[in-house]
Glucan endo-1,3-beta-D-glucosidase
Amino acid sequence: MRRYQQRMLSLILAVVMAAGIGLLPGVRAQAADPGTITSMAYFSAADGPVISKSGVGQASYGFVMPIFNGGAATWNQVSGDLGVKVKVAGNWVDIDSAAGYVYNQNWGHWSDGGFNGFWFTLSATTEIQLYSKANGVTLDYTLVFQNINTTTITSMTPTQGPEITAGFTGGAGFTYPIFNNDPATTYEAVADDLKVYVKPVNSNTWIDIDNNAASGWIYDSNFGQFTDGGGGYWFTVTESIHVKLESKTSSANLIYTITFNEPVRSSYTLTPYEGTTFTANESGAIGLPLPKIDGSAPIGSELGKFVYEISIDGQWVELSNSALSGFIYSGNGYNNMSDANQWGYWADYVYGLWFQPIQVDMQIRIGYPQNGQAGGSVGNNFVYYTFIGNPNAPRPDVTDQEDIEIGTPSNPAIDGMTLVWQDEFTGTQLDTSKWSYETGYYISDDPNSWGWGNAELEHYTDSEQNVFVQNGVLNIRALNEPKSFPQDPSRYAQYSSGKINTKDHFTFQYGRVDFRAKLPTGNGIWPALWMLPEDSVYGAWAASGEIDVMEAKGRLPGTTSGAVHFGGQWPVNRYLAGEYYFPEGQTFANDYHVYTLIWEEDNFKWYVDGKFFFKVTRDQWYSVAAPNNPNAPFDQPFYIIMNLAIGGHFDGGLAPSPSDIPATMQVDYIRVYNAGSTGGGGENPGPGQGSVIIGDAVRGLKKTGDDLLFYVNGATFADLHYKINNGGQMNVAMTSDGNGNYTYPVNNLQAGDTVEYFFTYNPGQGALDTPWQTYIHGVTQGVPAE
C-alpha cells in the first residue's frame, strides 16, 4: 500500500512539490513539553470530523494530527497521553483491544515532511476517537467508506485538454477523463485497467513510467496524481511530451500533448515581475517572484545564472556568502528549529525566492549575465528590491542549547562521557585496522556517475602522496594529477585526493564524535567529515540517511556547516543544514578547531569548539520506506568517512585556481564517545558494554551507568508506565525500531532512586498489562548483557 501522503494537494501545489523547490514557508509554534492534552481541534476541514473515501473493497484514510492545546503543543510532546478508540457495537473500545485492528497492518502513524498523523485501511464506515489518557479530552472522526465495483475501460473522453501548455516551471496536468461515456464511473473503478505512457514529441517510443525510475520518470517527483476536482495526473516537464492513457484489456486510449514553450531571448534585460517593495507578513516571510528576462518569466534551466546580493553596511554581498550576508540557504523550506535568517526557492506558476524571518528593513538586488551565460558579466543588469521588515515576527528560540566541554589534544577525557573509539594519528602511517581507502572516480563503475555522481573533479587514491600520517597528524592532500579511467577514457579527473572510511571496522549508533582539524582554503575546495549507514536498510542514497558532521567551502573560510539527509532515494531525498560562523579574526584555516556532533535517538546537535550552532529533531526527518517509524532512517549503525573533494555541486561547481592546489586537510584526532543513554559505540560492539539486564527476552530494562533503557520485544505496540520515587505516573509511547522491538530511555538516576513500572503491549493476540515492577538504582541486581 502506498504510504499515506500528508494530504493530497491541489494540482499546482503538487507541481511545486514535484519541482523539488521549497514552498513559501510559515512558522509552526514550538513549546515546552506540556505532557498532557488539554484540548484538541481538527487540523483543517480536510482532516475531520468526516472523511469520505471510496475504493474497491477497501480505502486508505489519513488525517493530520489535531491541533493540541490550542497550538501550544506538538504531537511528539503529548504522544504519551494520546490514545485511540474505535466504536464497536455502539461502544468505544481501545483500538488495541478491538478485533481486526493490527498496528502497522491496517492502521498506524505516519510522518511526512515534519507533519504527523494517523492512517487507516478500512472496508466499512468506521468511527474513531482520539482521547487524552490523563483527563478524558476527546475528538471524534467518522471515516465514511463507499464500495466501488471494478470495471474495464471501453472508451475515454477528455475532461481537460488534450492540448495542454505547461507553465514556466514546467508544471501541467489534467483531470481524469470520462470513462465508458459515464461520468459516474470513477478512476478507482478502472484503475487496475489503466496504464500511463509518456514520450517526447520528437520520439517514436512510448515509455511505461509505472515503477520505472530508470526512465527518469519518478512518481511524486516529476509526475503523480492529485485528488482535487475528481482527481487526475500532474507532470513537471522540461520539454514537450505526449502522455497516453491506455486500457490494458481493450484498444481504448487517449493521447494528451503537453507543450513546453522554451522562451526565445533577444536580450537578457531584467524587469520586475510585480513591484519592487515587499512587506513581511506576521511570520516574517516574504515571497518575491524572480524578475522577467526579456519580458517573460525565467524557466528552470535559467535559475542557476541569477546573481543574488544583499546590501550590508552599504556594500553589496553575495546572498550565498552566509558569513557576510547573514542568510543561509534552506533548500527544503523554512527550518523552524533554526534561528538563522533563511532563504530559498519557491515555484507556483513562476519561480521566486522566499525569505524568513525578515524583522528589519533591508535591500537586495537580483542580477543576470548580460550575455545569458553562467558567470558572465552582470554589469548594471540588476533589479533592486526593498523589504519592509516585521519587528514582531517570531524567531525560533535556541537559547536552551548549552555549549559543551571538549577534550584537549593530549587528554580525551570528558566528564560524563565514555571514550569508545579513537584515532590520534600518532604513528607513521594510516592504521588500516581502523580505516579503508576509497579509490577511483566512479560509483560502482557506472560511467554516468563520474565525479562520484556529484560532478567532482578529483579521483581518490591510496597513495601516500594523498593520505599520510606525519608528526601526529593525518594529512589528506589534493594534487594536480590528471587521470582517466576505463569507464570513460576520454574524461579526465583533474586532481588526485584522499578518502578513507571505517566501514567494516567501526560503526556506532547514538553517541558523540569529536574531530579536530585544520582545513584548507581555495575555490572549489571541499573538506568533509561525514557518516553513512553500514547497511542501507531503507534503500539507496539518501533513503537510508547521511549525517554530515562537518563540511566546508574553501572560498568561505569563516563558515562551516552540518547537515542530515533523509526521505527517499534520490531525487526525492531531503536535507536540513545549519552553519557555524567563526568569531572575528578566526577561520577554519588559521588554526585547529574541534567539530562535534552529538547523536541521540531523537535529535542531532552540532558544535564547533564546544559552541552549539544547530539542532535537528526527529519530528523534522522521515523515511519514505518506513513512514511509521519516527526514528528511521537514523536508527541504524553508521560508519565514519573523511575526504577532501574538489569541485562538485556543493559550492556551485567552482574549480580551484592554480594557487589553490596542493590543498591539505590536517586532522589531529577523531574520538567517539558514548553517553550511555541508548547504548551504541565501540568497534562493532554488542549490546553489553558494561550493561546489565533486569528482565527477560521479551520485556524489562537494561542499565548502563546511571541510565535505564526499557524494552519490549516482539510486539505490535508498547507503552511504558512509570514513576520515580513515588512521584507522578508517566505514561509514554515506546519507540519502535520497525521490527516489533520497542525501547524508552530514563536517564541520569541517582543512587537509591526507586523506579516503579509496568508495560502495556500487544504481543499479537491482544493488548495486555504486566504487573508493577520495582527497580532500585544501585540495589537491584541483573545479569550482564551479552
Notes: The chain has a mean pLDDT of 87. The longest strand covers residues 473-485. The CA atoms of residues 101 and 362 lie 56 Å apart.
